[in-house]
Design brief:
Blueprint lengths: L1 E12 L12 E11 L2 H6 L8 H13 L6 H15 L4 E7 L11 E7 L8
Antiparallel strand pairs: 1-2, 2-3, 3-4
Helix pairs in contact: 2-3
C-alpha cells in the first residue's frame, strides 16, 4: 500500500476548554498520512485516479473553520472520518498539533490511526 502525505497544514480554529479559548482563534497544524494505491494514477498520469491532496486540504480547512470542538482529540476524529468517508481512504493517520498551548512547551499534539492497511486488489 502506498502513502500520500499532507504535512504542516495550518488552520486557525476555535478550539479549547477554557472560556478565553472560546473567544479567539488559535493556530493548529495537521500532518496527514493516507494509504492508497497510486499505481493507476502514476501509469495514466491522471489526478482523478489518486488522492487529490489539494481537495483534501480544502475539506480539512473547511471542517476546522466551521467547527468549535473543545478537544484536539475530537477534531482529530472528525478529520479522520472526513478523509476516510469523503475520499474513500482505507487507512489514515492524523496528527493535530496545538503549538503554544502549554507554557514552556513548544507544542502539544495528538496522533490517531483509523482504518486498516489493506492491499486490496491490484489495479
Amino acid at each position: 500500500m502506498d502513502r500520500v502525505f499532507i504535512e504542516g497544514l495550518k488552520v486557525d480554529a476555535l478550539i479549547g476548554v477554557y472560556d478565553w479559548e472560546r473567544e479567539i482563534l488559535q493556530p493548529l497544524e495537521f500532518d496527514i498520512e493516507m494509504a492508497t494505491n497510486i499505481q493507476p494514477a502514476a501509469a495514466g498520469d491522471n489526478l482523478e485516479l489518486t488522492l487529490d491532496y489539494f481537495a483534501i486540504s480544502q475539506a480539512i480547512t473547511e471542517l476546522v473553520k466551521g467547527s468549535s470542538f473543545k478537544l484536539i482529540e475530537s477534531l482529530a476524529e472528525a478529520v479522520s472520518e472526513l478523509i476516510r468517508h469523503q475520499f474513500h481512504v482505507c487507512w489514515v493517520q492524523v496528527k493535530v498539533s496545538k503549538p503554544g498551548a502549554v507554557p514552556n512547551a513548544r507544542n502539544v499534539a495528538v496522533q490517531i490511526q483509523r482504518g486498516t492497511l489493506s492491499q486490496g486488489p491490484q489495479q
